[in-house]
Amino acid sequence: MDKKMVMIENSDGTKFEVELITYLMSEDQQIDYVVYSKGEISGNEGDEVIYISKLARNGDSLYVEEIQDELEWTNVQALLRKIANA
User: Fold this and answer.
1) Which of 27, 30, 37, 43 is nearest to 80 (CA)?
2) Rg of the chain over all Cα atoms, to the nearest angstrom
3) Are 52 and 76 a contacting pair, CB within 8 Å?
4) Nearest to 35 by CA among 9, 12, 55, 16
5) Is the separation of the CB atoms in 39 and 54 below 8 Å?
6) What is the 3-state secondary structure (H, E, C) of the chain?
7) What are the tens digits of pLDDT across the range 22-37?
8) Residue 29, CB-side half-sphere exposure with 13 Å CA sphere
9) What's the pTM?
């Protein structure tokens, strides 16, 4: 399967290329999330590090924000479980 590479921008304006794994939409369809990899490997098992960030809009531009709220993390984990169990 081909990797889908995309450019993302942090809220501080830093841009970097990442592999897009998937995207998620909240149950109420108000918040979008992006799941991506920077190609980093972690641990003795050589697991790939996966990131999940909230997509935010500033005018016509999209950028990623950290998910900082515990309830929001719980909701995102539920969305991921739906995908894993599909």
Assistant:
1) 27
2) 14
3) yes
4) 55
5) no
6) CCCEEEEEEECCCCEEEEEEEEEEECCCCCCEEEEEEEEEEECCCCEEEEEEEEEEEECCEEEEECCCCHHHHHHHHHHHHHHHCC
7) 999 998 999 999 999 9
8) 0
9) 0.82
